[in-house]
Amino acid sequence: MNDYKTHENKLWKRMSFKGNKVWVAMNKDKSFFTKENKLLIKYGLDQNYEYLIKKENIRPVAEAIPKGKHNKIKEKNRNNHDINTIHIYTDGACSGNPGPAGIGVYLKYNNKVKKISEYIGIATNNIAELKAIKRALEELKKFDIPIYIYTDSSYALGVLTKKWKTKANLELIQDIKKLLEKFKEVNFIKVKGHVGIKENEIADTLATSAIK
After folding, report:
1. pTM listed for this prediction
2. Enclosing domain of residue 124
3. Does 145 lie in the same domain as 83?
4. What is the block-wise mean pLDDT of the chain (212 residues), using blocks of 10 residues?
């Protein structure tokens, strides 16, 4: 396999980020291209949106988790709750961190689908992830049926369900927790981003397109 490719006059190297295969921007001498002391990555070369990540988070491509091995149990459980259940996929995106930010929400109830794509101004990635969840909850009118919220944000899950201690975004976190109290049953499920989960990819596209 050729680990290097040229796309739109820029050299990219195939590597791994959080278990996912990504393309990392390189200089002509095959050293890492950096921006704001971070690496520039894409999940697909044809993808318009680019991400800035810390150099220590990038790994050799051999360490990527094989496709189909992510979230096998949770995806199986998800398919058991399709009838009379609200499924919500949320995502937040930033161009820089902080930077221009957007949220994406994909809601599905039986055969009904709703998509939300909104620009939220300058924000951090964590704020965008939380605001996507908040926006989704505000959209709901049914409070007595099961709700499943899928997010690839460990931070959002931590502060909302695992009692993580944080000094940031306290007001936003409390607002979400108050909204959650309205519902009879809310389940949060962690999904892995950019591994081909259709609904999660839609939420990602909705979030990134809102920035543009």
Report:
1. 0.65
2. 72-211
3. yes
4. 82 85 91 91 77 86 63 42 81 90 94 94 95 96 91 91 87 94 91 75 91 80
